[in-house]
Design a protein that fits this description.
There is one protein chain. It is built from 9 helices and 11 strands. By secondary structure, it is α+β, with helices and mostly antiparallel strands. Helix 1 crosses helix 2, helix 1 crosses helix 3 and helix 2 packs antiparallel against helix 3. The protein starts with 7 loop residues before the first strand and ends with a strand.
């Protein structure tokens, strides 16, 4: 079959080749579509398609003849130079992409030159990761320590509530109630010993008696026993009962000067302190100065939980215990 072969419509509107082989009409009918499908299903094997669809034999033969024209149509062979040029461009593109994605060690440093930009970029990424990652990890660790201390303090609060319900008083170490007026400084009074009663009588484990960051286990700071504030332990008022270590007392014990500066507990790096209230609430306070009600019907006042008020009502430092008026919240270990 050549390009000059032609098909002429006969009187009945069908097309015929020079070999009188029936060909397709301009629009495929459903039967013609089935004939083409049969050829495709049998890999254009004419005999196999006819055996599979004997009722469509003539249509299959016509479709096969028409498709054979397309296969035998003469086409000029491509220019070998064009094929070579195309393959060369493909190889060059692959090589350039591989160079961009590979860091060659032998080319990294050569005679003071090389791919320093790659190493500078890597160093910048590493520096960024350290500068961002380390503070984040440190903050997460700090938050974990605060939460652990708060959970420990809640356990201790439950033990205090149970003890108070059993004995109708706060835990006070028997025989350990010295005359405060005889003490030269607050550093000579170990107030945390009163909480030891909770462990000794089985109300809590010893680990509950101090913050996990208290390496020396000095114990939590708690309200110094006095008749007025002892009543707060037996009622659900929002008054501070316990807190992390008082930093001013720590300074006094080690003979360091104590000023009037507002300081946070050392247990959490100076960021703040957990505080347990008489209503068993535990909060992390960023300052030792709290706004509380000393009396149920009183107005809120600012109270520094680390500093005792003197007889004039002033909280201006750690004076001798004999000068304390026992009318404020003062927590010490």
């Amino acid at each position: 079959m050549t390009p000059n072969d032609s098909a002429t419509p006969d009187d009945h509107g069908t097309a015929a080749s020079s070999a009188d082989v029936p060909t397709e009409t301009a629009a495929l009918t459903a039967e013609d579509q089935q004939a083409v499908d049969a050829l495709i299903d049998h890999g254009f094997d004419l005999e196999a398609a006819c055996r599979a669809q004997p009722a469509l034999r003539e249509r299959i033969i016509a479709a096969h003849a028409l498709l054979s024209r397309v296969e035998s149509y003469p086409v000029e062979a491509p220019d070998p130079a064009l094929i070579d040029a195309t393959l060369a461009r493909i190889d060059r593109a692959d090589a350039e992409r591989s160079d961009r994605m590979r860091v060659e060690p032998e080319r990294a440093v050569r005679g003071g030159r090389g791919r320093w930009a790659d190493f500078i970029a890597i160093a910048c990424v590493a520096l960024l990761a350290v500068s961002v990652g380390v503070p984040v990890l440190s903050q997460l660790q700090h938050r974990k320590e605060i939460d652990g201390c708060a959970a420990n303090m809640r356990t201790l609060g439950s033990a205090l509530a149970t003890y108070s319900g059993d004995f109708n008083e706060r835990p006070i170490m028997a025989g350990f109630a010295p005359d405060l007026s005889s003490l030269a400084s607050w550093g000579g009074y170990d107030n945390s010993r009163h909480l030891d009663v909770l462990h000794e009588r089985g109300y809590c484990d010893r680990a509950c008696l101090c913050c996990g960051n208290d390496r020396d286990q000095h114990g939590y700071a708690s309200q110094v026993p006095n008749e007025r504030m002892n009543r707060a332990w037996r009622q659900p008022a929002h008054l501070p009962l316990l807190a992390d270590r008082n930093p001013l007392i720590v300074r006094t014990v080690f003979g360091q000067p104590v000023g009037t500066a507002i300081e946070n507990s050392l247990d959490h790096g100076g960021y703040g302190q957990n505080v347990l209230f008489a209503d068993l609430a535990v909060t992390f306070e960023g300052s030792p100065i709290l706004r509380i009600r000393l009396a149920p019907d009183g107005n809120p006042v600012e109270e520094n939980i680390w500093v005792p008020a003197d007889r004039a009502g002033s909280q201006d430092g750690l004076h001798s215990p004999g000068e304390w008026n026992a009318l404020d919240v003062f927590l010490m270990q």
